[in-house]
Specification:
The strands form six sheets. This protein has a four-stranded antiparallel sheet with strand order 6-7-3-8. Strands 14-17-15-16 form a four-stranded antiparallel sheet. Helix 8 crosses helix 9. Helix content is 37%, strand content 10%. Strand 9 and strand 10 form a beta hairpin. It is of the alpha+beta class.
Amino acid sequence: MLDCALTADVPLGPFQDHAVSVYSAKGKGSKLHARRTCTRLRADGAVTSEVPLNSHTIGRMCSSCAHHGDWGRPDSGVGLFLRALGGVGLLYQLQRYTERDRDYTVDQEEVERTAEVLRVEPVASEDEEHEEEDWEIRDDAERLRESVVSAWRDAARSLHLAQVTVASFPWLADWARPKMALKEQFMETLRGQAAHFVTPAGLLAAAAAANMDEPELPSEESAFAAIGDSTEVARRLRAMWSGWQSKARGSWGLPGDSLLTHDAVHGIRQSRKGYAEARAAVGRLMASWDDEAHRIVNAADTETAVVLTVHLSEIQEDETYRSRGREMGLLADLDDWTIGVLLTHLTGADWGHRRLTIRVPQLIADRLLIRSSPLHCEPASPEAVAVGAEASQLGPGVFDDTTVHRRRPLTADHLRLLRSVGNAEDELYIVFSTDGGAEVLPFPELERRAAHGWRGFLVASSKNLPAALIEPWSNEVGQRPENQDRWWPGHLRSADDPLFGEELGLNSGAQQAAWLAFGDEARVRERNLRLLAMARGVQDLRRLDTGYDRAGRSRGLPRSCLQSPVCPPCPGTAPRRVVVSRQWPPVPSGTGGAPTAVAPSSALRCTAPDPARPALRADDATLKTLPSAVWHGLLASGQDLDLVPFEAPGGSGWKPHGSGIPLGVLADVQVYAVNADPRFQGKGHSPFCSHTRERGVVADDDLLTVADLLSGKDFDWCSKCSGYAIRRLTDVQLAHYRAAHMLHNIAQRMDRARGGYGSDRLEQLAEQLRVLEKWDPDGEDRSYTEDSRRWHRIVRELLARACSARPDST
């Protein structure tokens, strides 16, 4: 096991003497621990303190915590620095793939002997025992070849990670330079060993084969009659050509006979007339392709070398196979032919910046220059800078480990380090910039902005919200009820009930966010509430959609929805190309635009979706930007919203009709829906609808207001989800919602067409109306507004009717 503990000789740079929290037993000489839960610390009597991070503190560290301890918050500057050193970080990488690491060392004579075995094509023998022994030797040789090549790949990855870390923390450069030199020397040894398995002539032949056009296939020749008619012969020969070129394209030489000729006559009995002739003709045809590839190589200029600069792709984890630990980028996704070219023709390398220099024949250069993936090649320029731009230095003040006035601007390099922290991509951050002011942004949006030169600093993440703010809120929300019926408030309360409409309010949203926490309930509960507190400050919830991941998959749309997230059962649904919005003016397309307020008087309009986003594919995975519980904390189901009191008076008999009560503060409450525009086929759905896989709000959803719902009569909503979800009501909005329903309830009771009222209730109704007369629908005393005048007119009319109908009124 490698000894990768933090030692006192590691330079700490700007984090020298930075305060870190530690735990220890009582006593001056006791060991320091990064976690109270460390198995080497007795929990009884443990003391918490802050000490300066220096050589003395490092010398007192517990050996286990010195290896893997989090001595600072993971998303703070000192936390990121120590995290980059520990675990499988820099200290671990500097000890791997060096001359001292014997696990990856192979004897040079064994390599040369194995390479000779693999250069000889296997020959069939009548002695089965001898033939089996030859195949075992060849299998062992192939495993050794794979082991050496894999070791070189892994050594390159290790060197790259070490150099990137040192570039992020430049004060480590002088200390790490001797250790880097050992890694570079050992890596060159591995490259030399791996190159023994590659023949330059084979690479040239494979390059020639890859560039060949499909030849004219002799499907009409009588020699192929045993295969079938001319159509079947053409199909099999075309498949054989495709397989031959594909194998040559990705290997270190031509494929030879292999199984391709067997596949061409597969399914034909060997005793059939003409079988031997067909098999021989197939072999001759493939041999002609081999000859043509060698002819191209012989005719090409293989003496003149071309110098190319190779740019490798960045290491990234394929999110589709995250559970399998699959990585992409650097050398991981290169085929054997490309690896063989690098092993044979590499002349210089800057692994930290993923830039290599190779000197290759023109034939190989031609093939590399026309390929765009997975690596990019270009002719080397004498004026080109040998190394890339230095990474932005990380120190105190980049993240929230200093006071706000000492913060430093975020850069793409800083965010790249922050990505290494667990769940960083699922975090929300308060940031400030001169063009956008204070904003709440998801991590991928921060990365996009930083990549385009955005200048701003990070104020806090949801993890950094003070516990003094979150813990009392969590206690106020209360624990999850054992009776699950209480999770979702009832909908049959009377308008006179003080809890009427509570399912639409912020308090109910906090309960849903906390109570829908499973697994490690306490931790998830707290995280949900922190995210909810941050997300409540976002003007437009569609901004929380982080778009597409690095593989081009939507983070919000479900697998079954293509370009339009409309339910699959809806017949005749066409992909939606426009969305309904009430934003005016539109949100600026720049990177720093602040959220634009919703104009209450604006009409419905259509805006084209962002053309820069790639089209979705049918196999897109469902990746949510926020936990489902947080979305339930932000939005309430449209089924809980009753707008009857605000509808215009009308109707007859017992059919419910409105009272014309003004919306007031409810007019601008946001409404989110999928496919709300009635001009496009398919029903509208709530982001919580099962037809949309309950994926929350995404950027292409439709944004309306409650005023739009009341004014529009042609919406086609889903009957299961009511078609939309609303932004949860503030206390002022919920109070007006309750007051409006109370007023509507009184109007209904006093409606003679609906049965009239009892004289014994008149005084009670009049008293309620006197209370409602003091209410203002705009949330303030602004009696000059139209809504306020209409509210008071309705109340006065009902109050006058109640007073005139009393028996003593005469």
